[in-house]
Specification:
Length: 228
């Protein structure tokens, strides 16, 4: 028994038959035609379908900051497009990324006089607005972050500037290792610091003496070379 409804004409009840043929909506009609059609169109690849979807993101396990990438542009379409590209590249490199986070705009204005002297009050105003987006990487390995930044630099989008702050983490006792490397650096630099400035050696004096014994130098010089 299906649901009943009251009839306005007779005042009675009529049983609604679910098996009765109903009018198809345009969406259902298209779906039915696509299912019954003999021609099967090839399905779009997953990589192409992903372009029309939001970029996938990986969750950070510890939340340790690794890199902050700031994108700047004068066009909102360019900066949004490149931010989307950066997030997709981070996902395929297994980097947990967050963003794009909108940052405050940078507004700059200039007033330039159109003419001088008596027409000084006729001035023209110019304005430039810089749009910014922030993409953050957490729990990322240093080498992987460098590969990600190098990939973005290689495929940089026109009209978009990049500024990256990268954090590098060291083990405990890094000060002792830096002291050891400093001592070895000093030993390598001491011979070079000894010859800093003038290089006083026999090769230089012999080269100068040979130049002064040249015939062209003798003709232009009045002083004899007997005393050298």
């Amino acid at each position: 028994m299906g649901p009943c409804y009251r009839s306005r004409k007779r005042g009675g009840y009529h049983v609604f038959d679910h098996t009765a043929k109903q009018a198809l909506t345009p969406v259902d009609r298209d779906r039915q035609q696509s299912m019954t059609s003999k021609v099967d169109f090839p399905r779009m690849p997953r990589s192409v379908q992903a372009v029309y979807l939001k970029p996938l993101k990986r969750k950070a396990l510890y939340g340790i900051p690794s890199c902050d990438l700031q994108l700047r542009s004068y066009n909102v379409r360019n900066v949004e497009f490149f931010a989307d590209f950066a997030l997709r590249a981070a996902y395929y490199l297994h980097l947990p990324a967050t963003g794009p986070i909108p940052l405050p705009r940078i507004t700059e204005r200039w007033t330039v006089p159109r003419s001088n002297f008596v027409n000084k009050k006729s001035q023209e105003n110019f304005e430039r607005i810089t749009l910014r987006r922030l993409v953050q990487i957490h729990d990322g390995h240093l080498e992987t972050v460098e590969v990600w930044l190098a990939f973005l630099r290689k495929h940089a989008y026109y009209g978009v500037g990049m500024k990256a702050n990268v954090w590098q983490h060291e083990n405990l006792g890094v000060g002792k290792s830096m002291d050891v490397s400093l001592e070895s650096m000093k030993r390598n630099l001491e011979p070079r610091w000894a010859h800093f400035g003038r290089r006083k050696n026999l090769e230089t004096s012999e080269t100068v003496y040979e130049m002064m014994k040249n015939d062209a130098v003798r003709k232009t010089s009045d002083a004899p070379l007997s005393g050298l």
